[in-house]
Specification:
With about 120 residues, this protein is an alpha+beta fold. It has a domain at about 10-85: Alpha-Beta Plaits (2-Layer Sandwich). It contains four helices and five strands; from the N terminus they run αβααββαββ. The strands form two sheets. The chain has a three-stranded antiparallel sheet. A two-stranded antiparallel ribbon has the order 4-5. The radius of gyration is 21 Å and the shape is elongated. It starts with 8 loop residues before the first helix and ends in a 15-residue tail after the last strand. The structure holds zinc ion. Zinc ion binds near residues 92, 95, 97 and 111.
Length: about 120
């Protein structure tokens, strides 16, 4: 006796990011497409009552799994660029240690840091 499995392309697409808020996903979609990566958004039209369950959150997927690595690199790059202002670090002019952007004096040598 044999069992036939139907292949469902949706289920094998690799998921890049999943967010409760659709806009956080929709933001990356045109960026990836402009890089020539075919994307697919799962659960785009989930009812808001379903959003309490992470498995129903909108998810951005790659249509071709071979694009997955490239897509993740782009997503991380875009996220880093957006986070730059919050997470930028200042190198101490005296000892060259990296300090968080909101520090006013160097944690290492207590030199005052430039803005
Ligand atoms: Zn220092």
């Amino acid at each position: 006796m044999t069992t036939e499995r139907s292949s469902n392309k949706l289920s094998i697409m690799k998921e890049l990011i999943r967010e409760r808020e659709f806009r956080k996903i929709g933001y990356f979609d045109p960026v990836l497409r402009s890089e020539g990566i075919d994307t697919f958004i799962k659960n785009q039209h989930s009812a808001s009552s379903a959003l309490d369950l992470p498995e129903f959150w909108p998810a951005l997927c790659v249509v071709n799994n071979e694009d997955y690595e490239k897509a993740m690199v782009i997503i991380h790059k875009v996220r880093d660029e957006n986070a730059e202002d919050v997470e930028k670090s200042i190198n101490c002019p005296k000892c060259n240690e990296a300090n968080p952007g909101n520090f006013e004096i160097c944690w290492s040598c207590e030199e005052s840091l430039p803005d």
